[in-house]
Structure formats: structure tokens, C-alpha cells
Amino acid sequence: MYIFYDLETTDIDRDFGQILQVGLVVTDDDLNIVEEKSLRCRLQPAVVPSPQALLVTGITPEQLTDEDDTIFTMMQEIDQLLRSYDWPITTSGYNSMDFDERGLRSALHQTLMDPSLTFQKQDDDTPRNQRIDVMRLVQACIVHAPDALTLEQKTRHKTPQPAISLGVVARQNGVEFSEEEAHEAVADVKATIAVAKKIRDEAPVLWQQMLNMVTEEGVKEFLDENEIVSYATGYAGNMKHYMVAPVAVNDAYERQEILFDLTQDPADYMDKPMSELAALLNKDTGKKAKNNPFYKVLMQKQPIFMSLEDTAKELLPADIDEETLKTRAAQIRDNLEFQAKIAQAAALAEEEIPVPDAIEKQLYIDLPAEVETRLSVWRDEFQAGDWETRADLMRGFAARFADDLKDNPTLARFPEFAKRIIFENAPQDTLTAQEQKAFKASIHHKMTDPDAPEKMMTIARAHEMLDKMREELAAGTCKYVQAGEEHKLDELAEFYNRLEQKFAPAPAQAPKPPKPAAPK
Fold first, then answer.
1. Among residues 83, 84, 72, 86, which one has the least CA distance to residue 118?
2. What are phi and psi of 239, to 5 degrees?
């Protein structure tokens, strides 16, 4: 069973933005649709949507407030829905691993649910859920099955590449997908399924190989069985291809496979000092350095690997014969000391990631297992409780986790998320007048803060973007509105003004004039 999904959001930033719509389509193993669902919610009080997102999706300011569900109630429904199916489940989308997946996890985090929902096990006897990104399948076709899809439309870059946005790929391959349907979540999902079927039918070997890559276990098994691997990577339709050999696994940062580019001689690197190898493996310099033979690949993100046998001969290096590739791969395979050295260098290369100040960005901060267990209990109590109970849990968090907060101050984000949920859903019943007033003030500050994090949308930044669009519209270069649509920009400007005023503090009242003195 597959669950294909798509999100429509207020911003391209997955943590500061908010999900407004989720489209879910369930299929059987043969990709036949058996159920579909569209869920929407209204705008959160503290979220400022970006003008670009509203113009691209066609969501109007009125639609931002006319939904009954909040993000909290919508995410509860998604949580219950996903848990209602027989696990393991396979989730899929288009560009889902780099966007939708992170957006879903961030929303679960901020609504006090389990962020690992779609990636976990039901119990110890159930395999982990799996994920497939159909855009990765399209990218794999560019390299390994160029005849499977029609990809004639190119980007406008200096060096044109295949355009692989969902609408462009779908329409070129016989999928009915109008501009009006684009950015409607369920329509996007159905187009994604149609593209997946096309790849499955036209490139069955590639389809099966990419299905094998949906779990760490599948990737590891493939690399254990293949000394030489074809590795394709790139951004959008700009794909590069390399013949590599697996060297080591780095567990210091998620779970990475370290690969060696076999167009270079591994003997040149086997005696290099640890510091030099660590510099090559540093995540900031990494493969950007000239002639760097190392590539780091996240094993959980469906890498595009193919065996030497299934790789077209024209993809092999023109100036290095196959025998040389095999000799170099064998050098790496037989040198256990070099493998261990690379694993150690990769761990050394990982810099400590600074703790983000914005609580929305603190999703991936590791907590001690014992603290995580007790936090999970607190979250479950919050989900199961009524609004009074939730308010008590919010107010009692500091005392309940007093010792933990000393060692892990980022835990303070959880009662803050709880306050946001309560304020949006049941403020009159659970928050005092003083608490409501203070929270409204904090919302206004967040919306108007001139020192807000760079990627957080504020009222001022939204107006700046609208002003820039007006300039581009006059120059005929605006991507978001056309001549004659100036009213759309004016309507959004009015919307942002109203949004700012909604939580603005009441103007100070003038002092009452003194009473006239009584006559003597």
C-alpha cells in the first residue's frame, strides 16, 4: 500500500511556514487509487504568509481564515488517519524528501505530536515505514532511462537542463494537468501517481532498483553486493554521474555512505594524514573542492545507485577502462585500514551544529533517551486531555521538567508550542485575560520584529516583496502577476495591514483631565 501526499504551505521555509492544505491519496501495490482525502486549515495567528506562496497557490486572504480546522486539529486527523492503516506503509510524493517530508515533520513537532510518525515502526515486529520520492525517479530516468519519459522542455538557465517541475513533467507525458489544478494538493498527488506509473511501465529495471533503495537496509545490502556502483546526483534536472566504490559509513551525522570516485587513484589518498582527509570530507568543503574524490550520501534518502551491469556503457568514463575501475575498487575493498581511516576522518569532519535560536528550527536537537521518554508521556497527556488539562500541562511544564531544563534549555519550546495551540483553539476557556494580552503582544512582536531570523516572514518583509513585484511588473519581468493584475498586490497589501492591526496593542488612553477644584 502506498500513501501519496502533497502539501500547500504559506512559505518555502518548512519550519517558519505553515501547512494550509494536505492532499492524501491511498493506492494499492499496483498504484490503483483506493481512497483520497483533502484536508485544510486556517492560518495560525503568528504566521505571516509570503506573497509569493499566496500568488502561486491562488489562496486568497479570505480563504486563510474561513476554515473551521486549525493546524492542531488538522494534524490530529492526519495522525489518526496514518495510524489507521496496516503498517508498514510507504509514503510518497514529488520532491517530498526535500520539502513535504520536512514540512510534515515540522508541523507534527509544533503541534506536539511525534515527528517521526511516517518513518517509524508500529512495533518491534513491524518493519520501518518506507518513503519514495517520485522526483528522484524522474532524475534517475534522466541518467539511466532517458527514453522512459518525454523531457523536452528545458530550463532557461545558461546551460539548459530538463525542466522537472511536476506540472511540466506530467503534461509532457500525457497526464491531464491544467494550470488551474496545479498547486491543488489532491490534483498534484494524482499527477504524481500518473508519473510514477509511467516510469514503472517504461523503465521496470530502474523502478525496481529505486524501490530497493527506499530503506537503509536495502542501500546497505546493495553496496555490500557491489564493489563498483553508478551514482547519480544533482539539482533539479542538472544531473551528474560518477562511477564510485563504497568506502565507509559515517554515523556521526545521520547515516552517510562515503563513496570514492574511481576516476581517481585511491593509492594517492591512502597515506594522506588524517587532517587532510578530514578537510576533504568536511561538509562545507566536501565535494566542492577541486579533484575531491569523496562523496557523502545519506542512506535514508533513496540514493540513485545502479550496478555496473545495469549501467549503460556510454556512462562509463571514456578515458578509464573497466578493468582499471575494478582494480581500484579492489584496492579499497582490501585495505581495511584505509576504510577505518576514512570513517574516522568523516567523523572528525563533522562540525558541531549550533543550536538555533528560533524554536521552530529546533526539531532535530537530540535529547537524552530518558528525557525523550518522559517528554513523550507529557505530549500524549496533552493530546488526550481536554483544554483545561492542556492548560495545566502547559503551566506545569517548568516544574515537571525543572532539572531537565537546566541541561536542555531548548525544552522550553514545548510549553511555548502548547501556548500557541491553546491560544488558537480555546483561549477564552483556558487563558486568563492577562495571559491572552501578553500572548497577543508576543504575536505582534513576532510579526513586526526587525531582527527576526532571516528566513522568517514578517509584515515588513512581505511589503518589501510586494514593492519589488510592483517594480518587476512595471518592467515586465514579474513571475507572479501579469499586467492588469495590480489589484492582487493591492489586496495583499491590505491583508498584511489588517494582519498587523489584529494583534497591535491598544493605543494608550489619554489621561483624564483633572477635576476642577471645588469652589471655596
1. 83
2. -100, 140
Cross-strand partners of 305 = 231
| Concatenated DSSP letters of 460-509 | HHHHHHHHHHHHHHHHT--SS--TT-HHHHHHHHHHHHHHHHHTPPPPPP
Quote the CA–CA distance of 247 and 327 in Å, as a whole number. 14
Torsion of CA 152, 237, 103, 197, to 10 degrees: 50
CB-based contact 304:210 (threshold 8 Å) = yes
Instruction: Report the C-alpha gap between 467 and 470 in whole angstroms.
Output: 5
The whole-number pLDDT of residue 332 equals 96
C-alpha grid cell for residue 508? 494608550
Q: What is the pLDDT of residue 1?
A: 87
Say how far apart CA 338 and CA 340 lie, in whole Å: 5
Contact 213, 219 (CB under 8 A): yes
Instruction: Give the three cell numbers for residue 416.
Output: 511555548
Coil, helix or strand for 457? coil
Look at the block and give the residue holding cell 492526519.
78
What does R_g of the chain's alpha carbons equal in angstroms? 27
Q: In Å, what is the CA distance from 43 to each residue of 20, 68, 347?
A: 7, 10, 42
Q: What is the pLDDT of residue 514?
A: 66
pLDDT attached to residue 185: 87
Question: For cell 593509492, what's the residue?
Answer: 267
Residue stretches of the chain with pLDDT short of 50? none
Report whether 39 contacts 22 (CB < 8 A): yes
